[in-house]
């Protein structure tokens, strides 16, 4: 912690050492006001519960000692089994190092401990670490939630030891006996090792270098603790999602400490935002010069490596081999972070003018008030253990979905992934959900009727998810489009949705471009008969594509516009059943006239049905659609039956408002993951909670599209919704027309 005495003790100006690759921006020390603000900042951090108690600190130290003894005994056991001499068995050793927030001294209560076990050359990672040590830990009562991740970029074993979360890495170095006083910063530890081992060692090596390269370690720690807390509150703390993780924030803070060597934490926080709002990315942030590749390992160098030129926010690690620690950052996530830096800079300016308090800086980001359109990614599994593994796989690839959307829309559709998971505790299965905000790139000219077609994007994302090697029955994923008013209630901890604040004009324009029907809101005009039909027929606002079987190639789904001459549904009325025929690979989906599904003056985001299989209609030689003569039922949103299997994700077209008073719904459908013609799964996300059933009034029935009697349309979150037979439907439709239509 920082004391007032320590804050005032700044080294003389003439004795200031140059840290980093450039001279300091300022060597000025703090004023009395700066010292007072620093004390207030630290009090705020203490009150926020960011420091662990003495009891927890003691318990962590005991757990590390116990774990250190376990790995030593494990290596001695392997040495004896391999037939080495008694002297070798006695000398056999393994050492445990920490890195990450614990090593840097900025960990808080409940945070995990990043640990690295270094063993001799004859103890392997694949067999000895992930098999023998894994079994030793699995038999211990103190160890729970044991999860090996051998195929990760940095292989790791995750578990809890006596309630303390541990991330354990392993590195086998080219020594027969590992000395107890091993200097991990020495380059000799990198001799004759592979790339995964280098990455495992680099966590500790980078943490040690950071502490050596900052002018004042205590000021660095307080500032880093503050900014990590700020990043979590503002939704920009997550390396896997495409934002920044712990080491990234540590490197950014360390560079600011180098640029202002005599500054105290309150000054460093303010200078942090001042520096990085003006930073000209992709110029790299470096704490020291990049070392040459002495041992042949690849280092970050955009002059030699074409891939390094594509990095948007390079933050270079200070230990050899120097790497870009923030390669996950995309154009969209960089945009979000720059907006948050601007926000932080504005608040810090007000704090320095005594117009605001520190609490204002840490106001949570209102993600669900910031956009009108969202992607909802639901992840479900049979139990919590399966969900933990399945969620880790899916979450590690959500960043790819952001990159794919950027690529396929040429950067015009911006995607904001939110690094926070939400759980619907009302579900019987284990469940979590992630959300992404969607908006048009600001400054883009809005063309009337323009659409974003990301059906193929979601299809590609689904295929990448389906590559999971350890998939089990019950592991499923559903991707849905939801409007702000359709956000499920479990997202809001207060139990109710926040009131919608007045939004800036530029933000509204961005959302309007994302398919929210802004043209009707801007210009009031007389509606033609077809548009009146759309308003009256809310069933025409719902699209559902139900995958039934696996196909190796996803077909063309639904076109952006429909011709009334060739694509009119054969069934008349405003709520006709879907007509589906196995034949040519063209898919017909509709209730009512197809041309009513897309208004001629709205913008759409098209995300087609991306299932393992789907229902088809056929066309004749002239290209006309032939109606289905079979008596196939229409699926109704409901719960997945026991034993249903799916891990595919599908999304139907996202259509904007067709009037100022109505919203177009959206359905997501998941097909059978094993390729069998099993149950059909999906989620119909409307402006009601997911626990609602189809037995509502007639208007809601038409909105939900529950037009089927025999075949259940199963929800990916296992909610069972009742269905209606066609005779009941006719009665409800008659009552609806009688009561509500003029």
TrEMBL record:
Its cofactor is Mn(2+); Mg(2+). It catalyses: RNA(n) + ATP = RNA(n)-3'-adenine ribonucleotide + diphosphate. Its main location: nucleus. It is found in: Nucleus. Residues 20-214 form the Poly(A) polymerase nucleotidyltransferase domain. Its EC number is 2.7.7.19. One of its GO terms (biological process) is RNA 3'-end processing. Residues 367-425 form the Poly(A) polymerase RNA-binding domain. Residues 622-632 have a biased composition (Basic and acidic residues). Residues 219-363 form the Poly(A) polymerase central domain. Signal peptide: none annotated. GO terms for molecular function: ATP binding; metal ion binding; poly(A) RNA polymerase activity; RNA binding. GO terms for cellular component: nucleus. Residues 563-574, 643-675 have a biased composition (Low complexity). Residues 1-21, 493-580, 622-682 are annotated as: Disordered. The keyword Kinase does not apply. InterPro entries: NT_sf, NuclTrfase_I-like_C, PolA_pol_cen_dom, PolA_pol_NTPase, PolA_pol_RNA-bd_dom. It is an enzyme of class 2 (transferase). This is polynucleotide adenylyltransferase. Belongs to the poly(A) polymerase family. Keywords: ATP-binding, Magnesium, Metal-binding, mRNA processing, Nucleotide-binding, Nucleotidyltransferase, Nucleus, Transferase. CDD domains: NT_PAP_TUTase. It comes from the Eukaryota.
